[in-house]
Every structure is written in C-alpha cells, then in structure tokens.
Amino acid sequence: MRFQKIRAGLAGLLFVLLLSGATGYFAARAAGEEAAGLPAAAGAAMRGIDAEKIRAHVRFLAHDLLEGRGTGARGGDIAAEYMAAQFALDGLKPAGDNGTYMQKVPMVGVRTLPETSFTLAPAQGEPVRLKLLDDFVTNNESQTETAEIDAPVVFVGFGIQAPEYNWDDFKGVDLRGKVVVMFVAEPASDDPKFFKGKALTYYGRWTYKFEEAARQGAVAALVIHRRDLASYGWEVVRSSWGGERSYLQRDATPKLKAAAWIQWDVANRLVGYGGHDLNKLFQAAQSRDFKPIELPVRLKAHLASQLRPFVSNNVLAMLPGANAQRRGEAVLYTAHYDHLGINPAMAGDNIYNGALDNATGCGILLEMARAYASLKEGPARSVYFAAVTAEEQGLLGSEYLGKHPPIAPAKITVDLNYDDLPPLGDPEEVEINGAERTTFYPAVEETARSFGMAIAPDAQPEAGHYYRSDHFSLARVGIPSFSINEGVKFAGHSAEWGMAQHKDYNEHYYHQPTDEYKPEMDFTGDAKMARFGFALGWKAATLPGVAGWQPGDEFEPARKASQKP
Fold it and tell me: For residue 182, how far is the Cα from the chain centroid?
C-alpha cells in the first residue's frame, strides 16, 4: 500500500500537510467541527484529538515485542495491560471485575494437531485422504482432545433456515450424527426484502453455518470456500485457522466435533461421488425448492487437539455521567485489541502485527477516552470504553461483554465500534453501515454534514461486514450498534484510488504478517473518525431518551426484551 509520507518533526509534518492540501483540510475541520453542535468545552476536547497520539498507540501495539497480540498469549496480555494503563493515566474509573479495569473472560484454546485427518470414503472407489491446511481446516468446538467421526455426508445448499424469508434448506431431514456440507454466503438476490438484496445477512456468515449445523444435530460441518463468496482468499482462512483457536468455555449449547472449511475443488470431488457438479448445485441451491442430497460417501475423520484453558480480559473503563438521573444510562465505545499472534510453522516474518487490524481502532479508542477524561464535566449519561479480546476468534470478547455488560443492555443507548481504519489521509466520506437501522440515525446524518463528509454506502455489501465485527455482538443483545470507518473517497484522490487501496490491503495485508506499522502512515483520517465518534457519543449521551432499532429490524425484539421489567 502506498501511503503519504509524513516527516518526523513538526515543521516537516506541517510542510508535507501544506503540500498535500492541508489548508483546505484545516479550514473544513474548523468549519465542520465548530458546527458539530457540542458545548464549548466538549467541542474543545473534541478538537484536541491528536493524530500523532493515535500514531504512537498504533506504533506500540503493532510492535514485534507484542508478538501479534494473540488471544491468551503474552503479547495479547501486554496489550490489555497497556490499554488499562492508558485508561488509568487518563483518570477514568475502572469498570471491570472487583474494582479493576479487567473483565475476566474464561476461555479454552483449541489447537488442531497435525495428526488430524479427513478421509473421503465413497461407496465405490478408493478412499481419498485430504491434506490439512491445503484442502481443509478444522477445529473441534466440543473442546475434547480427540474425536472420531465416521458418518454420511449430506449436501444442504446454503445451510440456512430463515422463516422470515420462507427459506428452509433442511426440509425436515434428520441430520443427527451426520456431516453437512454447504456453501458460504446465501442465495443471490437484488430484492432488499429477500435476504436484504446484495447485502449479506448473518445467514451468510460461516459462524451462523456452524451454529445452525450444530442445532440440527450434525457432528461436523464443511463450509465450501470460494473467494468471491467469502470475500477473502484461502490464505486468510488458512492463517486464521492454522493455529490455536479460542472459544468461550463450553456451555449447554450444541457444538460440532468438526467445524471445517474445505476448498472448492475438494467439494466438487465430494459431490461428484453422487454424480453432481458443484456449479450446477450452486444454481439449484438458489431455489426455495432445493432439498438436501445425501451423498454416497462418508467422512472418516480423526481430530486431535491440544486444549489450553486460560483467562483473557476485556478492558473496561468509564466516565460517570454528570446528571444524577441519567448516570445509570450510558454510551459504549468498543474496539478489539487482539490479533492473530505468531505462527511458529511459518518461515521468515511470522508475526501478525495487526497494525490496521486493529491497533488503529485501539489508538482511536484511547484518544477519545483521553479527550472525554480531559473534561471537567462529562455528558449527562456515563461513557464506557471497552477494549475487547478475541474478536479474531469469532467476536468472543464482545459476546462475553454482551452477556455480562457493566450495566444492563437496555440502559446502553448506542455502541460505537472501531475496527481496522486505514491511515490513508483525510476522508471525505464516512461509512457507518447499520446506523440507518437505528433511531439514532438522524443525529448521525446531522453530524456527518457538520463534518463535511458524505455518508458512503457499504463498498462491499456482499461481504457482510456488519456481522464481522464486535458491534454485532452488542446488537444481538439489543443495543443499537454500528462501526465507524472511512469510505473510499479521500482528499486529493479519486474514489477509484480509494478502492484500489482497499483491494491492495485485502489481497496483501489483511490477516497477513505484512499488516505492520510504517512511519509514513497518515493518521489524519483516523483522528477525524475519532472526532466524529466523539461528537456522536456526546449527542447520544445527551439525547432525551435512549436510542432503539427501527420497527421491524432483526434486533428490535432483543431490544424490547431487554427493556422488560
């Protein structure tokens, strides 16, 4: 990725900014941010948000010394302590367990060992042994050291049961003790009333596929990977699943012995045993009339896992509300501090530093916290800051936070989340996918206008970004939640340039050791997103009532349930 180079000294910094059109930037900032509708003291605190302070946090959190901030690893624990130390230095109150900044999250690490094997055993013909990491990746969600599978394979289309869309891929077929194989994503649609058109819903996410397969009684689920449907390549799947994966400690919900991804070519061979072509099945699966197909093949699998119980931490801090009647309500800011750690099997650079993902979000969270803490008097409602763990493991830290919040979900008016904000310069757009689903959206629109930013549509609605970051966990318990990010249009560049940067990042940096801090990164935009989020949070903290979901939204029932006495 090519970033604008910024010199280290203040004089050099100002020189480069001026050459790149900084005069226009500062004029727009002054006009927009002065008109953000905040009280004078709050406006001053917002304008004091400093891009270079965000840079310093990112540089530290993405340093090799933190070893990729792996969940349950030394580097991840150091990152949590760093976040807590910064909150303490700001003077924010601890909001974790027993008067501390830490909320303990009991977890189990499951590492799939090399002796794990998958063999396709057709009714006729020779068995075929698949190659771990090249042909498939898998993990044992049941959290046992060994598991044996010898079960028939059933193709279930997209593996979706969605009554609101009159869609059922299972058609009452008994899948207990069987292996299901399914496509990632969901039926294609241009109709916003059918699976939300081009925008991916949660039904298309791999996490839903595994959850539903377990509910149906399957012992294993094989999700078929295709780059365009998953929105990332096999190398991302391999790096994400090639090491230890973490889970919340086992509860009563059903779990799979093998939650797996398989390559498209492997899946084509698998359905070929039944005389089928995978591309034709993909078309057939687009219909409501699709019925599961039992294939003349069994999966014989041996899963060997190394288990590691451990405790990770969410880091929670708060600024008490200034109004005694509103102090028991709150605005919540979130960002995940974890990344993928170290891959010891990889030659060369094997540290997943996670500079953009998500040291940037943490830097923004810390700088907003500092700005709020600098005020002599905060907003009416309390403001909570949560740096959560294990996002890369399936939004686990935020899931635990949603189930064990510092105050009741009904009392949290909004969650504003930050995840992976590329330091590319001054954004002319803000992307807030999901904000339009909340009653808070008019305030979002007003604030974007005051900052001189257009609200950009989701650049990749088919990727289902709303269901891929921590705000989703809070939405599931009813809290109006969304992430804040730049769009693709930056000052001095075309939208096509922004899309090219996005593509380059996805192909060469996302979930790769190459996602590293570079001195030439321009954190102007990250500071702008922090100021924008500060203004939004202040407004949410001072509205007459708490926000909600728009009528008919999928999360509205959870909000109503949380508000019952």
Answer: 23
